[in-house]
Specification:
Chain lengths: ~170, ~400
């Protein structure tokens, strides 16, 4: 970790009690779910991380509880530094406060995380699905959601599959 | 069968103004099959006469579940999915993915492979910008530009075919290097192309840059301030046209970009015309990089010698038991990656193309997330179009240079 990032991490640790992990030169700080918006605001305003480069979630079901990690990858254009904020969230109805007031791009990113993982964002201005159809059931990137596949049609099962396929004549 | 959803005002009540509810303003559906939306993008517009009050993009028509699919494939096999995201930048997507894998497993790349990667990625950038300059000016009724730029693009695709056998979905970069060395004709073909394109870019500028009709349609349209651009996560030429010099090739050099002398074109206006000027200048800079990389192109191997991740050469398999074992293990099991996550980003023609890659100790990625630049760039469209005319919307979408495969993933 270089010096300027070290100071930022120290101040985040003091203020939010954040746990820090490092891997291949990347710094991840773990923040408690209720304080994530506060932490992101501090990173944006005090430490100049103005660009939310990426935001996504990871599902650790069934081996971990709480099952989700939501990942905020932040970039400082002026300091040329990167930091990753992570927050664990779980439960039957996983919910986080929305960061769309801090970063405008979080609006679409949170819609995507909701669409793919079913994590709700309290106070989100537009809580619709974004990529999947509106009537889709389930959240496809959860680990308990099946990938789904189409059985290949060979000679031995040709008729069986032909009958199951929707035909254009119907 | 999925039902086609009607533009129901109830669904969008929280997004449109109150005047739309009373019927004072009109809701107009544009797309998803509109020729100027550059793919299957649907826009719901709230119009007061011809002035746009609200623009609501509706995406997802091209969603193919790439991220979920990649979780079910080994690291090598998942790479072919990356070609299909941004179909105007398959080589850049390959680069982004293989760099993420190399970072996760800590794999080296020999200098010759790095230089080849730079040359091909920059050719891909030119390809993307050529398609953009053609289609964006076609939207503004400058039809001949489209024919010229696609003529040049054909030469780039021929070079890709020469090195990889494929014109578009090349999968030429592999973790630890490239698929195989380039043929002897490669250098001559690239040099001839670079020599030709320098003159052609001047010709394009002669056609467009000072054209009063073109300037009328572009200048002052779709303004985006630097603060808004950063807040909306906008990167690439659009951010640089708003006054920032943020370019990952310069700020966080990868693949040896630090040894090439090139500048990062910027502009302060933040409108469509500024984006045009930045991209045209970027084409010249890309040509400069290609020339330098060709001049410096080192000799040597094109993949890493780390046999745990890179298969041995064919000749070795016949004589070495160990090589045979490595080959067998790599193509049946794949290679394991540590239980950790990394984020790696490259500068694609559209902006920061990032990959969040997480391993779980096995041969398949536990989670892959693509941070695609078009997604964020399109997110700023409602802000950029507010108060402009429908005809300006066409110019703004053109200047964004979106690729729907990149957005929907």
């Amino acid at each position: 970790m270089d010096h300027k990032l070290e100071l930022i991490v120290q101040s985040m640790q003091a203020e939010f009690g954040a746990r820090v992990e490092e891997f291949r030169g990347e710094t991840h700080i773990f923040v408690e779910a209720p304080r994530i918006v506060e932490a992101l605001t501090a990173l944006r305003d005090t430490h100049d991380f103005k660009l939310l480069s990426a935001m996504t979630a990871v599902d650790y079901w069934p081996q971990e509880s709480p099952r989700f990690h939501v990942v905020y990858q932040l970039t400082s254009v002026t300091k040329n530094a990167s930091i990753q904020a992570r927050v664990a969230v779980g439960g039957e109805q996983p919910e986080l406060p929305t960061a769309s007031g801090v970063f405008a791009s979080a609006n679409w990113r949170e819609r995507e995380v909701f669409d793919m993982f079913g994590i709700r964002f309290a106070g989100h201005p537009d809580p619709r699905r974004i990529l999947m159809p509106t009537d889709y059931e389930g959240h496809p990137l959860r680990k308990d959601h099946p990938l789904g596949y189409e059985e290949p049609q060979f000679t031995f099962n040709f008729d069986e599959i032909r009958l199951a396929k929707p035909s254009p004549k119907e | 069968m999925a039902q086609i959803e009607e533009a129901n005002i109830e669904t969008y009540k929280h997004l449109v103004s109150e005047r739309a509810l009373s019927g004072e303003t009109m809701l107009l559906n544009m797309g998803p099959q509109h020729p100027s939306t550059h793919g299957v993008l649907r826009l719901l517009l709230e119009l007061d006469g011809e002035t746009i009050i609200t623009c609501i993009p509706d995406i997802g028509y091209l969603h193919t579940g790439v991220e979920k699919n990649m979780e079910a494939k080994t690291y090598q096999k998942a790479e072919v999915m990356s070609d299909r995201l941004d179909y105007m930048n398959p080589i850049g997507n390959n680069l982004s993915y293989v760099m993420a894998v190399e970072k996760l497993v800590d794999l080296d790349v020999p200098p010759r492979a790095q230089a080849l990667r730079v040359i091909l990625t920059e050719l891909q950038r030119l390809n993307s910008h050529l398609v953009w300059i053609g289609t964006a000016s076609l939207d503004l009724a400058a039809q001949s530009m489209f024919l010229y730029s696609f003529r040049e693009r054909e030469d780039i695709l021929d070079i890709f075919e020469l090195v990889s056998g494929q014109r578009m979905m090349t999968t030429y970069f592999r973790p630890g290097g490239v698929w195989r060395d380039v043929p002897v004709e490669f250098e001559q073909a690239v040099r001839a192309f670079v020599h030709m394109l320098y003159k052609r870019v001047d010709e394009y500028e002669g056609l467009l840059t000072k054209n009063p009709l073109f300037i009328d349609r572009m200048a002052g349209i779709g303004k985006l301030s630097l603060a808004d651009a950063l807040s909306y996560g906008v990167t690439g030429p659009i951010l640089r046209a708003s006054g920032s010099d943020w370019d990952l090739r310069k700020k966080r050099p990868y693949m040896g970009y630090e040894q090439y002398d090139f500048s990062v074109p910027t502009h302060n206006a933040g409108d469509c015309y500024a984006r045009f000027l930045v991209r045209v200048q970027e084409m010249r800079e890309a040509l400069k990089i290609i020339e330098q990389a060709l001049n410096k192109l080192p000799l040597g191997p094109v993949h890493s010698n780390n046999r745990k991740f890179v298969p041995p050469p064919r000749a070795e398999i016949g004589v070495s038991m160990e090589a045979l074992i490595h080959h067998f293990k790599l193509w049946t099991e794949g290679f394991p990656a540590p239980k950790a996550s990394i984020y790696s980003a490259v500068e694609s023609p559209r902006g920061e193309l990032g990959v969040y890659l997480e391993g779980d100790g096995g041969p398949k990625p536990y989670r892959v997330h693509w941070r695609t630049p078009s997604f964020e760039n399109l997110g700023a469209l409602p802000l950029m179009t507010k108060g402009f005319l429908v005809a300006d919307l066409i110019a703004i979408i053109g200047s964004l240079d979106i690729v729907l495969g990149d957005i929907d993933r």
